[in-house]
Amino acid sequence: MNTPDTDTPTLHPLTGLGWNPRVARAFDAVAGAGEHPLLPARVASSRRGGALVRLPGETPADYAPALTRAAQADPSCAPCAGDWVAVRRSGDTWLVEAVLERSSSLVRQGVAKDSHDQVLAANVDAVLICEAADQGPNVGRLERFLSLVWASGATPVVAVTKTELAGDGLPGVLELVRAATTGADVYAVSAHTGDGLEELSARFLPGSSWVLLGTSGAGKSSLVNAIAGRPLMATGEVRQDKRGRHTTTHRQLLELPGGALVLDIPGVRRIDVPGDPGGVDQTFADVRELAGKCRFRDCAHESEPGCAILAAVDEGELDARRLARWNRLRREAEWNRSRGDQRVRAERKQRWKAADQEARANAWRKRGG
């Protein structure tokens, strides 16, 4: 897990929001190049054309014209929950002039036809992935969540929630979850009975920033309230088909009594893995380790002789379904990467075309046309 800096000046007004030397350096770089006096702020939630920022007091802010143009060209440039930004006063309005460099970005890819990324949250130290014990678990979905988090630069932590509802099936649920979470810690917790809360709560260090990720009905809001020891988030009922209702409809920044910060985002039912293959590789580290033992470096793990992965499947050391999911997510990551490359090439071509047209127009004007 990314450990927050501990040598932050305690008198800074944004210390409680995660201000640290890295953010200070990023802000100084932007403020030194700006035309107007700027102040740092952290985004609590975002909306089209603006955001709710903490200074540390909470206030709405609109995008400055330059930021609006950048966000229109690439939505991933727009401020999102957890972002550090530089703001200035313009009359009675606060304007977001720039988004500071992000230490991590939780990015969902493949949700738009133009293949632009959707940044769910930024500057996160850890992501708590919630899987309800009475609903599965859905191992394929969990692996997608893990791939997303590993690719973001944050540390994934898995909470198997609602353990009081699993009954005798809880050991089997935990076994499935742990088999799919190579390199990530797993906690069995119940917001209702308090089981496992003390151990999980110890992970929420002062100044650290967390995101809760999981489907609606996974118990995220109840879990945060239990860790905080008081109601911070609204909770919703679970339907008879065990699919939760979307209690959270916007992103918000919450402060826990112990000093940790939680960025709550709406429940996510569909995740396309990022084009960065590193997230999938980290999620399937056990399969990747086997791949390194194959006889041929370019082994496709299908029918080649000396394939260590196929041998592990034959010997019962690797579940064939996990191998199939690894192959599926690898192909998906490659497809999403190619979509992004195609978009970049198309945008570059458009810029070149516009520059060529402008040059032709300038030449025509010089000739007295």
TrEMBL record:
Cofactors: Zn(2+)
Superkingdom to which the source organism belongs: Bacteria
Binding, Zn(2+): 294, 299, 301, 307
CDD domains, per the entry: YjeQ_EngC
Cofactor note: Binds 1 zinc ion per subunit.
Region feature (Disordered): 335-369
Domain annotation EngC GTPase: ranges: 122-269
Residues reported to bind GTP: 214-222
Function text: One of several proteins that assist in the late maturation steps of the functional core of the 30S ribosomal subunit. Helps release RbfA from mature subunits. May play a role in the assembly of ribosomal proteins into the subunit. Circularly permuted GTPase that catalyzes slow GTP hydrolysis, GTPase activity is stimulated by the 30S ribosomal subunit.
UniProt protein name: Small ribosomal subunit biogenesis GTPase RsgA
Protein encoded by which gene: rsgA
